[in-house]
């Protein structure tokens, strides 16, 4: 009965029935058939209420609405617009600069929103008209926007990874740490593709003309090198400070390094804008107080406070040194471009630390991190004076809609799996998968091909709730690390957002891309629309890149397995000695037994 159940489910989905109801109806229908045929025990249906209640009582899934709400608030706060404008100006003069900016901003939005729709729609509305204005190839522009938006599915705090961890029975924090390097590497592969295209077809990705470059100094210079100097100084200070803490493991080390560097750069830029070279005495006094406070925190405070104190002191000292040089030479050493880039990048980077940093260093669970992220997003919207009741209402409505969508699919999957497991369907799938030739590698290749093909017709949530519970036992039986297995599937399922013709990223981009000729508001010239075929063809190279990334994760598991280095390691010898000591002390305290 199990193969027939699975086949009927696929047919129902292809006919267009809603996923949640197709799953539940399939489970109930075949459960009744199984009872009539004596293949299914009737009392198993009594477990249905408990399974539904267990789904609703799952604390891990509570992170889904938190991160969704955070992403929707950030989308409406204008953070993406500020980022794309500033980073586009930073990269704009080089060939393919706007495409690099979209990838960079896509990675930042992914690390703050975790929602594909928010990223794709924001970048489609803001960057696509600019790329078309300056002559970008429509296929490249469409593909890079859609692909950069899907980074939200692999770079933490991804909703995909939360659901994946729940289905695999693994820690969300481990999934986040394991996905960190593959996510950044995937963004790097996108940038490499843009570089190759811009070298072979320069007209497909031109640089911005000089008149389109803003944030210049009075003498006309851009001052980009000054941002590089500030970034190098901040990175060096962060590396020196972190070397004293002993934190050396992968993702948490990167996040903490980034947090210290951002603090140093932000304070340096703030002091430079506030005091400058004209109020040197006041700046020197403030710097002296901050440095003394940092020294006291280093000697008497906790590690976190010491990190914060050292970062503040380093930023203040750098700003003071810059002010002294500017006073003596008359030249600015922190340009307008350096200041603008620093101020625009600090809010999302601070939010990344608030969410991911607290999770990685163990201060918060993913659910608590999501709650802090939601509060942080509201605070950022309030700082930009864009927080309103209407915005919060819309974000709350969309969050409830998505959360209900996820919950109903999961409940339907529970009903389906109850019957499927009751007729030993999981045993059939496990034996089928384990018997594949090639051992672990043969299993991983076969599963990757199967998931890639299913992604043409099913989206991530459908794959996660139907397929993963069936594949996980077989992977565990073959000795495959389930976190590694989950990251392989997550990167693979990312293609479901990019597959023509059903990829959701392509639908999101189509909804905001111009469908008719329009007059550009800057050049006042008529601009041709973006065709659906151009969006689809633009997505194809990035689907190939994602498949290359799947192969890299399979071939080099070390890029995922670093998550184990952050785990607490117990010394068996020390534990045995402690128990021996405990036993001897208890023996000494107990009075001797007397028999009469």
UniProtKB/TrEMBL annotation:
Keywords: Cell inner membrane, Cell membrane, Membrane, Transmembrane, Transmembrane helix, Transport. The chain crosses the membrane at residues 6-39, 98-128, 140-164, 179-202, 223-242, 254-271, 280-299, 305-325, 346-364, 370-387, 399-423, 443-471, 478-497, 535-556. The keyword Isomerase does not apply. It holds the Pfam family DctM. It is a multi-pass membrane protein. It is found in: Cell inner membrane. InterPro entries: DctM, TRAP_DctM. Residues 6-318 form the TRAP C4-dicarboxylate transport system permease DctM subunit domain. Part of the tripartite ATP-independent periplasmic (TRAP) transport system. This is TRAP transporter large permease subunit.
